[in-house]
Structures are given as C-alpha cells and as structure tokens.
C-alpha cells in the first residue's frame, strides 16, 4: 500500500505555508505603511463569495479618511521611498501598481486567510460607502492601530480570544497570518470577536 503523503509531511507543508503567508502579510502591510509615510492604517477589502474573490476597496488612515480608492485602472499608489529594501522583496512586481497588492491579498484569501471586519464605528471620517462600509473586511496595517481598537489586549484579556488553535487563519499585521490552510480545510469559522464570518 502506498500513500501520497504522511501526517508529518502534511504538518511540515502547512508550517511552510504559514511562514510564507506570515511574510506576505508583513510585506503588504509594511509596504503600504511606507508608501504613505506611516499614515495608512487599513487596507479595506470586499469579499465576493460567489466569485471566490477578495477585492480591494481603499486604503484608509486611522480616522477613516480615504488615502486611495481602488478601481481606477490608471491610478497608482505612491512609490516606496528611495532606497527602500521593501522594493527588493517584491522582485519584478511594482508595489505602486494596485494589481500587485490585489495579487498578494488574493493569494492570502485563496489560502484560506480570514480578515477582520472593518471597525466602521471607530472611523469618524469614513462617511463614503464606496470606500468604507459595514460589510467590508480589512487588513490592519500596524500594531499601533490594533492597540487603538483593542486596548484590552494590553492586559491579555482580548488576546485570549485569539488563541492559535481557535482562530488559526486570522490575518493581522502584528500577529501575521498564523497557520493558514487551503480553503475548505482546517478550523470551523464561528466568529464572535470581530473577525469575518467566512465559511469554509
């Protein structure tokens, strides 16, 4: 009898996926932060489950003001600062082109990553429904924003609801993409802590 894989090989493979996705989440968040000189706080996303696609909506600052709205094929994000090492990490791809960010987010999504819901109630300037809406997801772009939204995490209270074995596919910059599985595999998605309600 032969097998295509063993349990240990599967565990090793998912660990490598986790590490790769950790790096991609950090790269995406750090790049947007650098492009906007630290002002970028949220990458707003819109899930289309019927098309199995996570689209890009906007980049917002900490109060919800729109720094960039996706959708205009001729518009580009700001360039990285001269000499930034982040540019090397993207290889031949240009992070100023929205499609580069789109490809990165879609890669995470296809590997089963779960994104936060956009905390619209904490964004007083997010009044334009085309760039920020209650149903939108987001990628938090800095640890500072995380601490502003979830101050109880400093005492560990909130952090206890995010144990890796409970929510292994959650995506946050400070926590990165932890233990990401292909879609349809891994943990059940029952969300009561502000995470998205994606179904496997």
Q: How is this structure best described in words?
A:
By secondary structure, the protein is an alpha+beta fold. It has one domain. 26% of the residues lie in helices and 14% in strands. It is built from 4 helices and 7 strands; from the N terminus they run H-E-E-E-H-H-E-E-H-E-E. It has helices spanning 7-35, 86-89, 98-110, 143-149; strands at residues 42-48, 53-60, 66-69, 116-117, 137-140, 171-172, 176-177. It has a 5-stranded antiparallel beta sheet. A two-stranded antiparallel ribbon has the order 6-7. Helix 1 packs antiparallel against helix 3 (98-110). It is globular, with a radius of gyration of 17 Å. 29% of the residues are buried.
Indicate the topology.
Layout lengths: L6 H29 L6 E7 L4 E8 L5 E4 L16 H4 L8 H13 L5 E2 L19 E4 L2 H7 L21 E2 L3 E2 L23
Antiparallel strand pairs: 1-2, 1-5, 2-3, 4-5, 6-7
Count of individual domains: 1
Q: Counting H and I runs of at least 4 residues, what is the number of helices?
A: 4
Mean pLDDT, as a whole number? 77
What is the terminal separation in angstroms? 31 Å
Shape estimate: globular
Helicity range? 25-40%
User: What is the ordering of alpha helices and beta strands?
Assistant: HEEEHHEEHEE
Low-confidence stretches: 152-165, 175-200
Notable traits:
200 residues, alpha+beta, 26% helix, disordered C terminus
In brief:
This protein is α+β, with helices and mostly antiparallel strands and 200 residues long. It is 26% helix and 14% strand.
């Amino acid at each position: 009898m032969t097998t295509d894989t063993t349990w240990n090989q599967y565990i090793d493979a998912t660990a490598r996926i986790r590490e790769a996705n950790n790096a991609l989440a950090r790269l995406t968040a750090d790049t947007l932060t650098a492009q906007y000189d630290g002002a970028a706080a949220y990458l707003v996303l819109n899930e289309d489950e019927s098309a199995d696609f996570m689209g890009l909506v906007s980049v917002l600052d900490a109060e919800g003001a729109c720094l960039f709205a996706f959708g205009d094929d001729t518009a580009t994000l700001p360039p990285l600062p001269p000499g930034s090492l982040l540019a090397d990490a993207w290889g031949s791809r240009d992070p100023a082109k929205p499609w580069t960010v789109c490809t990165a987010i879609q890669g995470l999504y296809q590997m089963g990553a779960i994104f936060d819901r956009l905390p619209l109630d904490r964004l007083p300037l997010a009044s334009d429904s085309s760039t920020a809406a209650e149903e939108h997801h987001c990628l938090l772009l800095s640890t500072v924003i995380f601490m502003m939204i979830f101050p109880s995490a400093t005492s560990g209270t909130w952090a206890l609801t995010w144990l890796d074995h409970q929510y292994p596919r959650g995506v946050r910059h400070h926590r990165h993409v932890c233990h990401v599985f292909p879609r349809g595999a891994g943990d059940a998605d029952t969300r009561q802590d502000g995470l998205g309600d994606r179904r496997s």
